[in-house]
Amino acid sequence: MSLRCLYLMICWSTLYNIDALLQLSVNPPTVEVGLTTTITINCSLDVLSEPDMSSLESIKLSRSNDTTPPVYTTLSTIDTFSNTATNSSDSAANAYGKIVTSGVSYLSLVWNKPIEFLGGIFKCEVSSLDLSGRPRNENMTSRVNVVSAGVNELLVRVQSLSLVIENMSTVIDSYTNRLLQSKKSLFLESSPFEGSRYYLSRPFPSLVSYIAQATCEIYGGTLAQVDSQEELSFIQVFLQEFFNSFWLVLIGGTDEGHEDHWVYPESNRNVSFFAWGSYQPSGGEKENCISLDTLAYWNMSDSPCSFNDYSARPRFLCEIPES
């Protein structure tokens, strides 16, 4: 075998391996105007599997119209110096990428909900150095077609979406009914007051303030935030209907971590109204939550934020806006 033939075989083998390892994917390959929601173009190269490459220098994605010869405009690049994918000023895509010394290096462009998208020929170009330090350049191209969706296809899509929405509505209605049933099982409900209702929990073996708050949030509310004497008076009348079954009700407000500075932790809003009972607050750093206490004639007292004694029969009060 001649040296020239051997040289050509080695070159052909090297190019074949590079082509096999360099990948350019386009998803979807055909863009339907007004219907395609995401377009992804990804160029990748498995550096570890390329034995004849000493280093990968850069990756570039570009696009050309259907011209002869093609004239490419750069869309995005990444190189080893910055290792950050950048896109051109006129590209509406998000660029992602990385270059690694071993493994898969890549450069991706993603268009989300594109208003318009130009098809054409997309090209991935890879610049690298071989084992002798000589520059090498490889590229791969892929075509993206842009088509207008026909009326019949649009009707099919609309009908399909209508079925999805109908199924979702059924599921939502089912969960809403379950939520309402669980609320009736967990709470006693007040009449409305200034656009909200108050929900008094049934007794629990133990009670923790943040769990009570989370429970209120499940139903779209918070632990009751009492902002006026009128609101407190309304709540007191509501609680007195059931006063013989408990003596303490946890509401919103805490000074935990900032003694005597009372806030609503879910919003960090300062508590603006207080109606402390006699000798209240009195618990210092051991009692960091606000409760309405029957011993204080349903006025405010500071209390622990957790109760493990069922004999105390603690409950909590949610405030939920009317829907």
Quickly describe the structure.
It holds the Pfam family Lectin_C. By secondary structure, the chain is α+β, with helices and mostly antiparallel strands. 24% of the residues lie in helices and 38% in strands.
CATH class of the largest domain: Alpha Beta
Task: Provide the residue-averaged pLDDT.
Answer: 82
Give the CA-based shape: elongated
- Tally of DSSP β-strands: 21
The ordered string of helix (H) and strand (E) elements is HEEEEEEEEEEHEEEHEHEEEEEEE
Helix content: 10-25%
Tell me the layout of helices and strands.
Layout: H1 3-21, E1 22-27, E2 30-33, E3 38-46, E4 53-64, E5 72-79, E6 86-87, E7 94-98, E8 104-112, E9 120-130, E10 135-148, H2 151-186, E11 187-189, E12 196-201, E13 207-208, H3 209-218, E14 222-223, H4 229-240, E15 248-254, E16 263-264, E17 269-270, E18 289-293, E19 299-303, E20 306-307, E21 314-321
Parallel strand pairs: 2-10, 15-21
Antiparallel strand pairs: 1-3, 3-8, 4-5, 4-9, 5-6, 7-8, 9-10, 11-12, 12-21, 13-20, 14-21, 15-18, 16-17, 18-19
Keywords: Signal
Pfam family, one: Lectin_C
Domain C-type lectin: 193-299
Characterize the structure shown.
By secondary structure, this protein is an alpha+beta fold. The protein folds into two domains: 22-148, Immunoglobulin-like, CATH 2.60.40; 184-321, Roll (Mannose-Binding Protein A, Chain A). Helices cover 24% and strands 38% of the residues. The chain has helices at residues 3-21, 151-186, 209-218, 229-240, and strands at 22-27, 30-33, 38-46, 53-64, 72-79, 86-87, 94-98, 104-112, 120-130, 135-148, 187-189, 196-201, 207-208, 222-223, 248-254, 263-264, 269-270, 289-293, 299-303, 306-307, 314-321. Strands 11, 12, 14, 15, 18, 19 and 21 form a seven-stranded mixed β-sheet that branches. It has a six-stranded mixed β-sheet with strand order 2-10-9-4-5-6, with no helix packed on it. Strands 1-3-8-7 form a four-stranded antiparallel β-sheet. The longest helix has 36 residues, at 151-186. The radius of gyration is 34 Å and the shape is elongated.
